[in-house]
Amino acid sequence: MARKLIFIFLIFLTILSVDVNCFKLQQVLILSRHNLRTPLTSNLKDTSPHKWPKWKYDYGYLTDKGALLESYMGEYFKEWLNEQGLLPPVCPTADDVFVYANTKQRTRESANAFVRGAFKSCNISAYSINSEKMDPVFNPILRDTSEETKRKIIAELENKLRELDLDEAYTHLSEILDLKNSHICKNDLLCDFSQFKNEIVYVIGQEPRIVGPLNTTNNVMDAIIMSYYEGMANEDVAWGKINKAQQWTLLTKIIRENQNVRFNSSTLGRNVAKPLLKYIQGVFTDIPPRKVTVLFGHDSNLNSVMAALGLKHYELPNHYEATPPGGKIVFQKWHDEKMNRDLLKINYVYQTIDQIRNTYYLSSKNPPFWVDLELTNCSVDKNGFCPWEKFQKMLISIN
Ligand SMILES: *[C@@H]1O[C@H](CO)[C@@H](O)[C@H](O)[C@H]1NC(C)=O
Ligand SMILES: *[C@@H]1O[C@H](CO)[C@@H](O)[C@H](O)[C@H]1NC(C)=O
Ligand SMILES: *[C@@H]1O[C@H](CO)[C@@H](O)[C@H](O)[C@H]1NC(C)=O
Ligand SMILES: *[C@@H]1O[C@H](CO)[C@@H](O)[C@H](O)[C@H]1NC(C)=O
């Protein structure tokens, strides 16, 4: 009986491995957010009578820890690409791999760190254009000057603002900040975030912006969560006042919603991500195809691309942000040898809160988290694949 069961089990295993073996990875495009950085703004002191922690880097810079975390990502991906047989265990050539970053220090240095981890002592270096200005490919600005597009995008922004439900988060954040004793309360009478209106700023050549409590509280929460990721002492993270996961979940809703309002709508996404979508389309149509492309941009890039492509709602377990630092959308082209067809698979790959805060080294035994993503217009099968051709048609239609 036992022997018979083992026999059946072996047949089962054989069937499984045959099934797996007929898919071959052909091409990968990784769209990554930069890793852990310092807060983006210096003018937080008015929001609280408490003292803010000091950072030893400039504003919006990748920290040393962020660079280390990103080099772990690089090492991990090199290992994965070797295992899948897409890259050789020796150094790949510059024809096989291209790592391309936006011009900000945090994106450039994330790309350099990824290359250090993945292609140590290989002749591969990260590329970015030679300018201090935003690279147009990564610049998530409003471009289309037509009134029709403006009307649509404003309607999308208004819709998202109408659905905002942040009162509970605002109240809790006000307690943590001691808002009633802050400068903005005493001088500007901004004593209750939920009493103020968020205004849409729609200017061609600028990012879609919201001025009001959403922006202010987002800057505050961003500074707080970055200090948590950085591993600062408890008293330097929101003055020791956030101790429970539920508090983080509630408060980081502000960060998720700020991105959701500003970048997660379809007409808006297609507009602000236009050059990036064109670039991505080009990578998938160039002949001969380059095996691996890694792009380093911002949460705004990931969100606008996902909105333009119509990604289904997803959850990232063990994280508070919807687009975490160092998190990657991994577009994969697979070939199904049995059926002779090409397939798309998309994953979100990211370091969990623990992996970030405790600087955990990554390997195939301690991998970053992988979450399956799905396009609304390209349903996946049980293996997470959707037809490649359908995806290509979609890229053409939105470009
Ligand atoms: C390194 O790569 C660059 C460009 O990809 C190439 O021009 C150069 O010859 C390579 N150097 C070596 C030592 O292979
Ligand atoms: C958001 O608020 C900060 C101050 O907290 C301000 O410096 C910045 O200009 C505002 N950003 C936008 C996009 O309005
Ligand atoms: C983006 O918007 C869709 C609805 O249009 C929603 O289901 C999804 O949760 C949003 N994503 C994020 C990260 O907020
Ligand atoms: C998905 O399909 C709907 C209905 O045909 C269409 O309106 C929408 O533009 C499509 N989205 C994408 C990203 O192709």
Describe this structure in a few short sentences.
The chain folds into two domains: 227 residues, Phosphoglycerate mutase-like (Rossmann fold, 3-Layer(aba) Sandwich), CATH 3.40.50.1240; 120 residues, Rossmann fold (3-Layer(aba) Sandwich). The protein has 13 helices and nine strands. Keywords: Signal.
Topology at a glance:
Layout: H1 2-21, E1 23-33, H2 64-83, E2 97-101, H3 105-118, H4 147-163, H5 167-177, H6 183-186, E3 199-201, E4 209-211, H7 213-230, H8 245-263, H9 266-272, H10 274-285, E5 292-297, H11 299-309, E6 328-336, E7 341-350, H12 353-357, E8 369-373, E9 386-387, H13 388-398
Parallel strand pairs: 1-5, 2-5
Antiparallel strand pairs: 1-6, 3-4, 6-7, 7-8, 7-9
Helix pairs in contact: 2-3, 5-8, 7-8, 8-11, 9-11, 10-13
Bound molecules: 2-acetamido-2-deoxy-beta-D-glucopyranose (NAG) (4 copies).
One 2-acetamido-2-deoxy-beta-D-glucopyranose binds near residues 94 and 123.
Which short descriptors sum up this protein?
9 strands; seven-stranded mixed sheet; Rossmann fold; 42% helix; alpha+beta; 2 domains; 399 residues; single chain
Question: How would you describe this structure to a colleague?
Answer:
The N and C termini lie far apart (60 Å). This protein folds into two domains: 24-45 and 66-138 and 267-398, Rossmann fold; 147-266, 3-Layer(aba) Sandwich (Rossmann fold). The strands form two sheets. Strands 1, 2, 5, 6, 7, 8 and 9 form a seven-stranded mixed β-sheet that branches. The chain has a two-stranded antiparallel ribbon with strand order 3-4. It has helices at residues 2-21, 64-83, 105-118, 147-163, 167-177, 183-186, 213-230, 245-263, 266-272, 274-285, 299-309, 353-357, 388-398, and strands at 23-33, 97-101, 199-201, 209-211, 292-297, 328-336, 341-350, 369-373, 386-387. By secondary structure, the chain is an alpha+beta fold. Helix 7 (213-230) packs across helix 8 (245-263). Helix content is 42%, strand content 14%. It is built from 13 helices and nine strands. One 2-acetamido-2-deoxy-beta-D-glucopyranose (NAG) is lined by residues 94, 123. Residues 256, 260, 264, 313, 322 line the site of one 2-acetamido-2-deoxy-beta-D-glucopyranose (NAG).
